Amino acid sequence: MEQISVVKDTPEDLKTAFKIVAGDKDYVTEADLRAVLPQEKVAYCLAHMNKYPGVEGGYDYSSFAVKMYS
User: Fold this and answer.
1) 11-68: which CATH topology?
2) Helix (H) and strand (E) counts for the chain?
3) Which of 40, 45, 41, 44 minimizes the C-alpha distance to 27?
4) Is the model's pTM score more than 0.70?
């Protein structure tokens, strides 16, 4: 018998992944992204992520994750 499972990601799953990439920070930097993603995905993220308030070069992955699933 073959078992089929469907895995569905959630915004929380995406936030957790970004938090790991960001080294447990509440924001991610371009350098963080470049360390784990190919250039085209980094470019997409940077083009669609809001700046993180008060942090030079920081990007808000939390709002990005919500936006990706809405």
Assistant:
1) Recoverin; domain 1 (1.10.238)
2) 4, 3
3) 45
4) yes
